[in-house]
Amino acid sequence: MAAPMLRGCCLGRHWALACIDGGSRHGRGAATGFTSSGKRGQSFVAQQPHITAQKSRKGEHKWEAVVGLEIHAQIASNSKLFSGSQVHFAAPPNSLVSFFDASLPGTLPVLNRRCVEAAVMTGLALNCHINKKSLFDRKHYFYADLPAGYQITQQRLPIAVNGSLAYSVCVGKRWRQVITKTVRIKQIQLEQDSGKSLHDELRSQTLIDLNRAEGQLRVDANISVHHPGEPLGVRTEVKNLNSARFLARAIDYEIQRQINELENGCEILNETRSFDYKLGCTVPMRDKEGKQDYRFMPEPNLPPLLLYDTASLPAGADPQQVINIDQIREQLPELPSETREKLIQQYGMLPEHSFALLNEVGLLEFFQNVIKETRAEPKKVTSWVLNIFLGFLKQQNLAVNESPVTPSALAELLNLLDRKVISSSAAKQVFEELWRGKGKTPSQIVSERKLELMQDAEALERVCHAVMEGHPQVVMDMKRGNPRAINKLIGLVRKATHSRADPTVIKEILEKQLSS
Amino acid sequence: MLGRTLREVSAALKQGQITPIELCQKCLSLIKKTKFLNAYITVSEEVALKQAEESEKRYKKGHSLGDLDGIPIAVKDNFSTSGIETTCASNMLKGYVPPYNATVVQRLLDQGAVLMGKTNLDEFAMGSGSTDGAFGPVKNPWSYSKQYREKRKQKPHGMLAGHDPKDSTTIQDPGKPFMLSSLTDVSKLCIGIPKEYLVPELSSEVRSFWSKAANLFESEGAKVIEVSLPHTSHSIVCYHVLCTSEVASNMARFDGLEYGHRCDIDVSTEAMYAATRREGFNDVVRGRILAGNFFLLKENYANYFAKAQKVRRLIANDFVNVFNSGVDVLLTPTTLSEAVPYPEFIKEDNRTRSAQDDIFTQAVNMAGLPAVSVPVALSNQGLPVGLQFIGRAFCDQQLLTVAKWFEKQVQFPVIQLQELMDDCSSVFEIEKLASVSLQQ
C-alpha cells in the first residue's frame, strides 16, 4: 500500500493468503540463498524416518505453498489505543508512559475513538465487512515488554473481516507486463502494542522502553507447503520481518526449506522461526519451545464495541459517542488503485509509472503541481519527475517535501524545454543548478549561463558548414555511410556553439548540407 | 461526637459546634487507642491534619464544599491513594505508593472529606473475614475475640455512583447526586423473598430477623411475596470460575518489574517472576490464580469459563424475571449467621469460608444489580446482624430509599467504643489471650 501508516501505537492485523506455484513466486526463479538440507537442528526426528512408496521423491509431485501474512501497522493518532499518553516518534525512553501503560494496579483502558475510525477506514479500504459489534480479549503471556502480563486484542470477534486487496504485479521482461492478483484479508483487529526490548549483551541485561515499539510496519509470515489436492501442511511462523525485500527472501527460503525437508522424508515442526539476514535463511527461535496457551479471556473492562450506520443510528445519539460507518465511508480518500487508473486514463501513463508515482510520499502531489503549471506533455513531465527528480532525491536520501526544487521551478524549466528555448542537456544542467538551491529561477540560470539554444538558423548553418570544411576526413566517412561519423560532426558543432544548438537540428542541417 | 451519625456531625461542623481539626484529632486519638483492633494498615495523620486544616479554612470563610467537608473517612487499602502507601494487605505491594487517586477517593477528597488512613483487609480482598492479609487479621470491634464479618464486594452505590470516565464499563448517564426522600408509605411497595435463600446453614437467629423484617414491611402495608430464583444453587460455583479466571488475569501484572515487591533472584526473568510472585502472594491468592489459569486453558475454556458465563446469564435472568413480575426490592440475609469466633473461623480454609459466606451476596455481582446491607439488630451474643436489599438495575435511588426507611424502623444501636475504652485493663487482658491464637 502506498502511504505508510505514520506514528501511532495501535495495531491492525490482517491475514492474507496467496497461492503460490511450485516453490517460486511471481514468475521469478526459485529463491537463492537457502542452505542444503544438512542444516536441520532440532527438527530432525530421532528415528530414521520411513520412506514409503507414497512419500514423494525429489521433484516428483508439484508443490503448492500457502502463505499467510500477519501485518502489524501503527495507527496515526495523537494518543495511544487505550490510554491518553502521547505518541511521538523517537521520544526519549519511557517518557510517554501513562499509569495504564505501566500497568499500575487499578488503571483501566479507555478506547481511543480515532483508532476505531482508522480501523473502520482500513476495513472499508480493504473491502471488508465491518462488524457492527466487535469484542476485546486478553491474550496472556509473561514477557518483560508486556507490563500487564496480557495484551488487549480482538481475537474472537474483530472489527472487520473477509476483505480483499487487488494488486498489480510487474512481470516479464523488464517487468513491463502488469498482471492483477487478489489476496484475501481474513480479518482486521485492533490491539495493543508491546513495549520495546533493548538487549544489552555487555551487561547481560535487557532494557524496556514502554513508550511502545517504533517501526511503522511489522510482518510475520506463516508458511506451509502441500501437494495440490491434499490437506494443508504443517505451518511455521517467521517473525519480525521489517522490509518487503527480506520478507520475500525469508518466504522463498522457508518454502524451499520445507520442500527439501519433506522430500527427504522429514517432518515440518509447527514452530516459530526468525530470519537471519546475513545468512539469508530462517532459524528456529530458541525460546519458543512448546506451544503457548494464551488463555484468551474476554476483556472485562471494555464493553463490546458497537458501530452504527445511518440506518441503525439511534435517534438523538450524541455524535461524539457514536461512530457511523457510512460517514467514514464518505470521508474515505481516493484509494490508490483508483488514483492510478485515473493517471493512466488522463495522461496515458504506463501502469508501472503510476505505481512509481504513488509509492513515494508526496510525489503524486508534486507531479500534479508541475502538470498544472506547465504546457509540456504529461509524458515529458512523468519522465522528468520519475527519472531526474526522483533520482536526485534518492541520491541524497531526501523526501519529496525536502526537495530544493519546487514544482513551479520544474514547471518553468519544462516550459523552457517545451518552447525549445533550451536543449535537453541544457535543461539537465539547469536542474542541477536549481538543486543547489541558490534561489535562482530557471530563466535566470539559463540567461546567466547562456544556455539558450541558437535561434538563428542561418548562423547555425554557417557553423555546420565551417565544421564540415574543417574536417574533410570525417565528411568522407560520413559519405561512406559510417554512422558514427555524423555523431562526431554533431559533437564538433555542439562544441563550437557551446552546446547551444539542438543536436537534432544540427543533424538535420548536416545531412541536408551533405546531400546538397 | 464520634458516636453520632454522619449527618449529625456534618451539621455540627456547619454550626461550629466542632471544628474539622478537633474532629480529626478525636478520630486520630480513637484510632490510636483501638490500635489492637488492627483495623488500619496506614494511618495518614499528617495528611489528615492538613486536610482538616484546609476544611477549617473553608468553613471559616463560609465556603464549605458540602456535606462531606471535614468528615473523617477511612479507605480500604485496595483503593489507590496518591502519595499514601497502598498495599492491598499483600507483601507484593508493601511500600507501593500510587501516583494517583482511585476515582471514588478523588471524589471524596474533592468534597472535602478528611482521609484518616487505609484500612486492613484480606490480601487483595480475597476472603470473607479479613483474616488473611499480610498485616494480620482485623478484630471485630464488637468483640475482641470474635471477627467482624466484613461485607466484601459491595459496589459503591448511592450518592457517589454513576459515570466514571476512566472506567469504560460505567454508564454514560451523568447521574445527578440524588437526595433520598423520607419514605413514609411503603404500601405501594412489593418486597420479594427469594425462597432459595432459605438454606439449612442459615442460623435460626438470622432467619428470625429476616422473618421479622418481612413482617414489618407487611404490617406497614407493603406487599411481601415469596419469589423464586431457580438457579441460585449454581451461583457460587459459577462465581468461583469467573472470579478466579479474572484474578488469574488481573494478577499477571505483578511481576516485580514495574512496581511492588521484587525478589533477589536475577538469574533470569522467568526465575525472577516465579520467586517474586511466590514471595509476594499468600496461598489464597496463589490458589485462585492457579484455579483461574486452569479454567482459562484452551482445553478447559468451553467447559468452565464459557459454561459459567452461560450460567451467569441464567442467574441474571432469574432476577430480571422476578423484577418484571412486579417486585420492587428483594429482601435476603447478608450472612449465614453472626460473626463466627476467630478460632472457629480459621478451622476451614479461605476457599471454603468464602464459598459459604458469599452465598447471599455474589449472585448480585453476577447479575449486575445494586444491593445494600443494613444492620438490623444485635444477636444474642451482642454481635451485629444485617439484612440485604437488592434493587432493580439502575434503580439505586429506590433501593436506598427503601433501605433508609428500614434503617429508621429498626434503630440499630450505635457502637459505643468509648465504653469499651474505659475498661482498659480488661481490654489488654483479652488482648493478650487473643494475640496467641492470632499468630499466623
Automatic annotation (TrEMBL), chain A:
Keywords on record: ATP-binding, Ligase, Mitochondrion, Nucleotide-binding, Protein biosynthesis, Transit peptide
Protein name per UniProt: Glutamyl-tRNA(Gln) amidotransferase subunit B, mitochondrial
GO cellular component entries: glutamyl-tRNA(Gln) amidotransferase complex; mitochondrion
Pfam families xref list: GatB_N, GatB_Yqey
Oligomeric form and interacting partners: Subunit of the heterotrimeric GatCAB amidotransferase (AdT) complex, composed of A (QRSL1), B (GATB) and C (GATC) subunits.
Taxonomy of the source species: Eukaryota, Metazoa, Chordata, Craniata, Vertebrata
Entry's EC annotation: 6.3.5.-
Family to which this protein belongs: Belongs to the GatB/GatE family. GatB subfamily.
Gene Ontology MF: a single term: ATP binding
Function statement: Allows the formation of correctly charged Gln-tRNA(Gln) through the transamidation of misacylated Glu-tRNA(Gln) in the mitochondria. The reaction takes place in the presence of glutamine and ATP through an activated gamma-phospho-Glu-tRNA(Gln).
Main location, first listed in the record: mitochondrion
Domain Asn/Gln amidotransferase as annotated: residue spans: 365-514
Transit peptide listed as a keyword: yes
Reactions accelerated catalytically: L-glutamyl-tRNA(Gln) + L-glutamine + ATP + H2O = L-glutaminyl-tRNA(Gln) + L-glutamate + ADP + phosphate + H(+); L-aspartyl-tRNA(Asn) + L-glutamine + ATP + H2O = L-asparaginyl-tRNA(Asn) + L-glutamate + ADP + phosphate + 2 H(+)
An example Gene Ontology biological process: glutaminyl-tRNAGln biosynthesis via transamidation
Tagged with keyword ATP-binding: yes
Compartment(s) where it occurs, according to its Swiss-Prot or TrEMBL record: Mitochondrion
Domain of life: Eukaryota
